[in-house]
Design brief:
Blueprint: E1 2-7, H1 12-25, E2 29-35, H2 38-48, E3 54-59, H3 65-79, E4 84-87, H4 103-120, H5 124-130, E5 133-138, H6 151-171, E6 176-183, H7 204-217, E7 221-224, H8 226-235
Parallel strand pairs: 1-2, 1-4, 2-3, 4-5, 5-6, 6-7
Helix pairs in contact: 1-7, 3-4, 4-6
């Protein structure tokens, strides 16, 4: 029996992962879906149960610590444990430096970093007691180099990678796997807002398949697509004028 919890499940990669897991595991799956948009969650759940999966929905905001702790308690009780938890919820907003408004950057960091902690930390005692389990979080290739106009987003994804690196070492002795997923651009509502070219952009369903396969293999850090995996070592020395977003106004 697979017991999988996914945040940010109402759209994009989260919804695609939910659909893929329901197709793969059917009646052997209990799937917990978390997102702010309750109506979208309900619609997705209705589709997934036709695959035979048991689907539990939890409308909640990953930025809020206590509601997410309640989600963890509910899923552990409803599902009887957890096999895999994917902290997928995130946001990307322009820094808007010219306005002097700290809100976009602060909210991005809250969602992308605190949201991961709020999602995964409450599950860890149960995983330790089980003696096994898998935690995953969505980082980004952008976490390896700051991009103009998206400084807070890049910083948040760098923080996610460092956080998961630290947890991986600490939790390994308890039999718990920890994976950081670092995509390049993926087709989604989030990337649709980007006003610049996005080379090697990956279709949403393909991204979900790549992620699920990497998690199945137990990858510690998974960067995709392969072109981005090759590019990451070059990012530190890449000329700033060649970075995506160079010359755009924040």
């Amino acid at each position: 029996m697979r017991r999988i919890l996914i945040t940010g499940a109402s759209a994009g990669i989260g919804a695609a992962l939910a659909e893929l897991y329901a197709e793969r595991y059917g009646s052997a799956l209990t799937l917990g879906l978390v997102a702010r948009r309750a109506e979208r969650l309900a619609g997705l759940a209705a589709r997934l149960v036709t695959q035979g999966a048991r689907v539990l929905t939890y409308p909640a905001d990953v930025r809020e610590r206590e509601p997410m702790a309640a989600v963890a308690r509910a899923f552990l009780a409803d599902a009887g444990g957890v096999t895999l938890a994917i902290a997928n919820a995130g946001q990307s907003r322009a820094d808007r430096l010219r306005t002097g408004d700290a809100t976009p950057g602060a909210e991005t960091v809250l969602t992308n970093v605190a949201g991961v902690i709020h999602t995964l930390a409450p599950l860890i005692p149960a995983l330790i007691e089980q003696g096994h389990g898998h935690l995953a979080a969505l980082g980004s290739v952008a976490g390896f180099r700051g991009l103009p106009g998206k400084g807070a987003y890049c910083a948040s994804k760098a923080a996610v990678k460092v956080l998961m690196d630290a947890w991986r070492v600490e939790l390994r002795r308890h039999g718990i796997r920890v994976t950081t997923i670092c995509p390049g651009w993926v087709v989604s509502e989030m990337t649709a807002q980007n006003p610049y070219a996005m080379p090697f952009i990956v279709p949403t369903a393909e991204a979900a398949r790549l992620i699920a396969d990497a998690l199945e293999r137990g990858c510690e850090t998974f960067i995709f697509p392969w072109q981005m995996r090759l590019a990451v070592p070059l990012l530190r020395v890449w000329p700033a004028r060649l970075l995506p977003g160079y010359g755009t106004r924040s």
